[in-house]
Amino acid sequence: MTPPEKPRRAPNLQRRSTLAGEAAAAAAEVEAALDHPADAGSAAFFDVDNTVMQGASIFHLARGLHRREFFTTREILGAAWKQAYFRIVGVEDPEHVAEARSSALSFIAGHTVAELEELGEEIFDEAMAHRIWPGTRALAQLHLDQGQRVWLVTAAPIEIATTIARRLGLTGAMGTVAEHENGVYTGRLVGEMLHGPAKAEAIKALAAREGLDLSRCSAYSDSVNDLPMLSMVGDPVAINPDFRLRAHAREQGWRIRDYRTGRKAARAGLMAAALAGAASGTVAAGLAIKGWRDHS
């Protein structure tokens, strides 16, 4: 008689979020010129996608890598359909989601850190620089002018996040950390993608390391998914918010800034729930297909 199969252990998402946050904080580097800020106890934390930059940074990165033949159009379109199906039908298998996230950066397996950093510089110039929101950039500069440190906190790979921060003259960045050995990517993530609760864990770890008083810190985001990050600081601000974050911010008396045109803002409010969260998931799943085929 065949013994019954043991139930598969559910992934410990809280632990993986904590690990992702700690890894992001550990990987964050401070620009030398900003090592000793005048106001060392406070800082500002900015989400990137639709907060600092129009659109999803990981999408712009993926498109740039696609042009450089890292993966095919068919692969990314297939992944996009799969993600859209889950979101429209409303049924997502937690195990599938966990596996997709854990292999989200498998497309870079075998490539070097130096290679992705170099390509990230090129892709920033060709696809991202002109998409920076001037209003958000000005807010970040206000914090810098007050002697505070300014960090990006994003689900995008730490390499591209660091490039964006450096180009904008910010203190540093925390992003999703892909495991690498001897400078070569293994195709695995360290913990989860830096998303939702993982961002809060990253800020918590960085605050402990840098001696920050979170009650004196600010955080900026467009998405209700970043409530864990926004709720842990004394000055949360909604930037170009989706409709749920806008409602929450109004209820809590948080500042709201919208740098989109009226038409864009209305359209974004209607589509945010379906598309904002899908952007990184779609790209991540598509990139994972490439890694799976290359190693099968």
Please tell me about this protein's structure:
The chain has 296 residues and is an alpha/beta fold. The chain is built from 11 helices and 8 strands. The chain has a 6-stranded parallel β-sheet with strand order 3-2-1-6-7-8, with helices on both faces. α1 (13-27) packs across α8 (197-210) and α3 (73-89) crosses α11.
Layout of helices and strands:
Elements: H1 13-27, E1 43-46, H2 57-67, H3 73-89, H4 94-102, H5 113-128, H6 134-145, E2 149-157, H7 158-167, E3 172-176, E4 178-181, E5 184-189, H8 197-210, E6 218-221, H9 227-230, E7 235-239, H10 243-252, E8 255-257, H11 262-295
Parallel strand pairs: 1-2, 1-6, 2-3, 6-7, 7-8
Antiparallel strand pairs: 4-5
Helix pairs in contact: 1-8, 2-5, 3-11, 5-7
Q: Could you list some keywords that capture this structure?
A:
11 helices, two-stranded antiparallel ribbon, alpha/beta, six-stranded parallel sheet, 51% helix, 296 residues
